Amino acid sequence: MLASLVHARHAERPRGVPAVSPRPAMALEPEALLDLSFLTEEERSCIARVLQRDWQLRRREEGRISKLRKSVSDPARLRSLTGDWFCDARAQRHQHQLGSDLVRASIRRRRRPRGTGDPERGPSRGELEAIDEPLAEEKEEEDGALETDQSSPTEEVQEATEPQPSPPAPAAEGTPMSQPLLQGDNIPAREQDSPAQPGDTGGGNPFGSSSSEEDEEEPDSAHSSHNAGQRPETPQTDQTPPAPPSPQNGRSPPSLLSTSSSVSSLSSSTLSGSLMSLYSEGELGRVAVRGRVQFSLRYDPAGKELQVHVLRCRELAEAKRQRSDPYIKTYLLPDKSNRSKRKTAVRKRSLDPVFNETLKYKLEKRDLQGRTLNLSVWHHDSLGRNLFLGEVEVALGTWDWANTRPEWFSLQPRMPIPSDGLASRGSLNLALKFIPVGSEGGGMPPTGELHIWVKDAQGLIPLQSGTVDAFVQCYVLPDDSKASRQKTRVVKRSLNPLFNHTMVYDGFQAKDLAEACAEFTLWHHEAFSKRQLGGIRLSLGTGSSYGLPVGWMDSTAEEQGVWKRLLQQPGRWVEALLPLRTNLVPRA
Amino acid sequence: MSDGDYDYLIKFLALGDSGVGKTSLLYQYTDGKFNSKFITTVGIDFREKRVVYRPNGPDGVGGRGQRIHLQLWDTAGQERFRSLTTAFFRDAMGFLLLFDLTNEQSFLNVRNWISQLQMHAYCENPDIVLCGNKSDLEDQRMVKEEEAKELAEKYGIPYFETSAANGNNVSKAIETLLDLIMKRMERCVDKSWIPEGVVRSNGHSSTEQLNEEQEKGRCGC
Ligand SMILES: Nc1nc2c(ncn2[C@@H]2O[C@H](COP(=O)(O)OP(=O)(O)OP(=O)(O)O)[C@@H](O)[C@H]2O)c(=O)[nH]1
Ligand SMILES: [Mg+2]
């Protein structure tokens, strides 16, 4: 995504180090980190929550910016709309991260022994929030429309698995059962850090089941009882060993737990059965999105009603030869159920349809906070192949309700990345080494270090005909901040690019590595964007991290093997040549 | 056109001694409410608000309004959070510097806050609006309006006497800051793309503009 590439120019400097250089070239620039040890556990979690909110705002912003970069051609205008004027000025003074990233990294670093925290919230929450993906319920909000249903469960497919309290021994048990769910579902690899593209996850499955449809014809009952908005509390069907809750997650907030476990059960049925087709997007992404939609928003306090007055669209894409039969559908996210769905009538044969219809939602004004209006345009086909023509999302919590005039919005695509049904697009050759704290004598290193050596990729299969300008991006999750992100250089026009890039992440104990996941994604670099070919995830594949369910703990058996060897052989390089899979579970 | 959501994300940050009313002022601005109970801010917080900015000012013949998403950082005034709060200074485009009209020490500390800003903000001379808060407590006033104005003039920044309790001047102060930022942005953008740019579309005469530019143009943009 361009925004982050451009951003990286200011926010980051390359931090590769020679492969064997002992230190201190650390990914997180310890010298720049703040000493926040004076914070109490409660304060820490309080701050972490604020940072989490900021992180979400920023993801949304990055999404907005990347769209701007594609759509605004006037450079001066672009500079002001994107905030580049400010970033550039700041970059002259502050070479590194945003302050909030710095604090985030600093909080992450000052780990404290778990189990000493605020009993109400669960001991390690603060720390988790500082370093984690958004919490499950927040993720919900970010995830897009209904069509995402099939992918969001997938993301969380393993959360029932107990987190591994310490590596490496117990890891093996929890994992194998989850593999079948994760494989072969053709979840296309998507641009992982494409920010807050809410409907994005919905890109879910353009190829997995081409016969499937948008939701119109499906039986409502089946749908609403299985959608993510109101997950049924079905008992766990997986054969997860009944491991007792580990100390650090035993007290996780109930809302989190219940959400996740039910998703998990949902996902197994969704993915294995015929239900799958109900949730698949079908023809998403087949039509190049263009055009705009005009609507106004009004909240009627007397009737306690939100009124979405849909006026018209302009210059819609053609679903078929020179025609579309458009209609508009809305959801009030995070509710993705049928209750939340409203539709206009279909306008036949028009790329500039006039709707002039009001879609209404009964709710209290204060409940608008935290809701997002998802408005999508679809081509209706009598044979049932409805086609996605674009969408718009409006965060209602921050909408200016004084503004009741009709406004124009550009329609946005959901941008799935084609996977062509390929399971992998080549392989990545790398080596890793874990150096525990103090293991080199004299108290060195001061914290555990993870050394990564990205050597080369082999046998890449280009996305289109031609070649690949490849680079590899690495995160050590759950830290998905910029501070955690490392990139190799771009190697142009090669299907066997040699990177020879090394990096060091610090601040780890062995038990952190059991909760962590080193994610490597290989991208094709384009002038103003990038596209993912595939990736690998090295972790214990437990489906959860520090007690929170996460989709990205989806390592294959082979990948898990590498991570286990890493943990079992501290101080030694572990070599790995792994397929760049196209089915990484999307990261939020 | 841009993404349907908003046109600009503008980030402000409120700073000043503990208890001067930063949290209250922002709360008044975003929610129109006031809480007389003192709940000191832990480290950092922020609020958001959506506003529409009209470049020509309220009475100008306006082009279309710009949709602004404001992110308003609220810092803890307490000393112990200082290293953390100053880290956030660099993330903000403009600053609301508050003191408490009923607390002289908070006024004396304004200079220190300004030098902190000069050190840690995104540039040496960021846009700042000074607010003497708690103007509703007239009978407890310890800082004269003239004194405060003088100080503000010395730094070349606008000054407002605000009340988070009754809302007086609160929006005005924040909107003034927004106006400063939007104009600075315009200058920055102009400067880099139209080297000798003179034609501008805001309410100022071009000479005024140029003076302002000489004064403020030192930023790295
Ligand atoms: N009468 C009056 N009281 C105010 C005003 N603004 C704030 N207060 C009160 O002053 C106290 C402190 O206000 P806060 O807004 O919490 O102060 P702060 O600057 O955020 O303090 P820290 O978070 O510790 O940095 C609270 O009891 C407020 O109710 C005001 O304009 N008038
Ligand atoms: Mg406060």
From TrEMBL, chain A:
Keyword set includes Membrane: yes
InterPro entries from the UniProt entry: C2_dom, C2_domain_sf, Rab_BD, SYTL1-5_C2B
Sequence ranges of Acidic residues compositional bias: 129-146
Boundaries of every C2 domain copy: 289-409, 424-553
Taxonomic source organism: Cyanoderma ruficeps
Database matches in PANTHER family: BITESIZE, ISOFORM I, SYNAPTOTAGMIN-LIKE PROTEIN 1
GO cellular component: exocytic vesicle; plasma membrane
Location of the region described as Disordered in the Swiss-Prot/TrEMBL record: 93-269
Location within or outside the cell: Cell membrane; Endomembrane system
Membrane-topology annotation of the record: Peripheral membrane protein
Protein's name in the database: Synaptotagmin-like protein 1
From TrEMBL, chain B:
Cross-referenced InterPro entries: P-loop_NTPase, Rab27a/b, Small_GTP-bd, Small_GTPase, Small_GTPase_Rab
Catalytic reactions on record: GTP + H2O = GDP + phosphate + H(+)
Keyword annotations from UniProtKB, A to Z: Acetylation, Disulfide bond, Endosome, GTP-binding, Hydrolase, Lipoprotein, Membrane, Methylation, Nucleotide-binding, Prenylation
Membrane topology according to the record: Lipid-anchor
GO MF terms held by the record: G protein activity; GDP binding; GTP binding; myosin V binding
Top-level taxon of the source organism: Eukaryota
A GO BP annotation: multivesicular body sorting pathway
GO cellular component, one term: melanosome
Annotated CDD domains: Rab27A (cd04127)
E.C. designation(s): 3.6.5.2
Region (Disordered): 200-221
Residues spanning the signal sequence: none
Subcellular location: Late endosome; Membrane
Chief location bin: other
Enzyme class: hydrolase
Protein family (similarity comment): Belongs to the small GTPase superfamily. Rab family.
Protein name per Swiss-Prot or TrEMBL: small monomeric GTPase
Species whose genome carries this gene: Ficedula albicollis (Collared flycatcher)
